[in-house]
Amino acid sequence: MQDDEQPMRLLPELTPETTPFWSGGAEGKLLITRCQACGHWIHPPQPICPVCLSRDVKPEAVSGDAEVHSFTINYHPFLPNVKLPFAIAIVEFPEQAGMRMTTNIVGYAPEDVFIGMKVHVEFLQQDDVWLPLFRPVDSLQAE
Ligand SMILES: [Zn+2]
Question: Which residues, chain by chain, have CB under 5 Å from ion ligand 1?
Fold first, then answer.
């Protein structure tokens, strides 16, 4: 991936709860915390399941598939050395209705992103963080 293709991101602060999520990309895995008692996925990570209050939670890999739930196209240079515009999207995971994360859509013209677009995770390593970014599935098949 070209550096100039990448919107720069401020790196998250790692905590014991969030480290699996931000470092799973080292093994190509998107790790989401899951309740071992009732199966509920918990994102952002929390030490207690909000559904059944169990503390038996641990990170599990999801498929990496997702769908664009909503998006905005950013034209504002929040940070230097950022190629504009780029798409900031909220994607929803098929593993659980309502489980979503904010991310960037890469490898696609921002104006061609649409709600319902099928995307798949890929990772951009910056220091000890692997940022989950999402690439449209149809652009993967075209390659
Ligand atoms: Zn639970």
Answer: 35, 37-38, 40, 49, 51-52, 54
Domain-located, residue 121? yes
Residue 105 alpha carbon to ligand 1 centre in Å = 31
Domain that holds residue 67: 15-142
- The answer as to whether 90 is a domain residue is yes
CA of 71 to the centre of ligand 1 (A): 30
**Is 109 a domain residue?**
yes
CA of 35 to the centre of ligand 1 (A): 5
Task: Name 84's Cβ contacts closer than 8 Å, sequence gap at least 6.
Answer: 74, 75, 76, 77
Provide the number of structural domains found in the chain: 1
| Cis ω for the linkage preceding 136 (within 30 of 0) | no
Give pLDDT tens digits for 59-74.
999 999 999 999 999 8
Task: Say what the pTM is.
Answer: 0.85
Chain segment 98-124, per-residue pLDDT in tens:
999 999 999 988 889 999 999 999 999
- On whether the CB atoms of residues 62 and 56 are closer than 8 A, the answer is no
